């Protein structure tokens, strides 16, 4: 994995721009020409940092995954209870969608999976699998502690919640609804588990992917 900590400032600018283009247009929806105009670099300079578009796409996915993993570790270190951890997780997607209605880059790429280069597709799959594993672990812990009562198995609950959040971004953008992810996130939680608490799951958590 090409660790973002060792990438030059110029390459980081390219990655930032490429991530935005992927979030807005998908992998197949932009070219190095688009990227050149966005960052103000000539195409030979872009190819110097990322010789092939596959290299660029794979690095965007790797960096986003690294940041997401760090955010989940921060959630674990900040919030002890499974209920609070689930809400903080939902908030990550709400923040990504934000006022600009940008999609999760890996979710956007997932829709193009059959046309993606192998390295990019493998990175997206790894991102999905990590999220499902993390959610399943938190949900299982919540069930064992008596915080949650599940309507299905932990792995199915994790899949439903994750798919609902990713899908809410797509539908929300199509309907131009800024609150779509927040609304679907809460509905998805209630559809897969019962929270044994007098407190609502709603409430902002201060953890970010950036």
UniProtKB/TrEMBL annotation:
Signal peptide feature range: none
DNA-binding region, residues: 31-50
GO terms assigned for molecular function: DNA binding
Start and end residues of each HTH tetR-type domain: 8-68
Database matches in Pfam families: TetR_C_13, TetR_N
DNA-binding among keywords: yes
Keyword annotations: DNA-binding, Transcription, Transcription regulation
Domain of life of the native organism: Bacteria
Protein name, per record: TetR family transcriptional regulator
């Amino acid at each position: 994995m090409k660790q973002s900590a060792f990438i030059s400032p110029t390459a980081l600018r390219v990655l930032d721009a490429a991530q935005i283009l992927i979030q807005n247009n998908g992998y197949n929806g932009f070219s190095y020409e688009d990227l050149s105009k966005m960052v103000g670099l000539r195409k030979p300079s872009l190819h110097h940092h990322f010789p092939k578009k596959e290299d660029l796409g794979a690095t965007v996915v790797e960096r986003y995954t690294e940041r997401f993993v760090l955010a989940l570790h921060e959630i674990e270190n900040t919030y002890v209870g499974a209920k609070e951890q689930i809400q903080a997780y939902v908030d990550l997607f709400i923040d990504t969608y934000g006022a600009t209605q940008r999609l999760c880059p890996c979710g956007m790429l997932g829709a193009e999976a059959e046309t993606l280069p192998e390295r990019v597709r493998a990175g997206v799959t790894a991102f999905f699998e990590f999220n499902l594993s993390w959610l399943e672990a938190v949900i299982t812990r919540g069930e064992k502690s008596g915080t949650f009562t599940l309507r299905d198995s932990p792995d199915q609950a994790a899949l439903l919640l994750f798919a609902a959040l990713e899908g809410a971004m797509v539908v929300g953008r199509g309907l131009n609804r800024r609150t779509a992810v927040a609304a679907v996130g809460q509905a998805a939680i209630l559809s897969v588990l019962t929270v044994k608490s007098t407190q609502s799951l709603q409430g902002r958590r201060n953890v970010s992917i950036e």
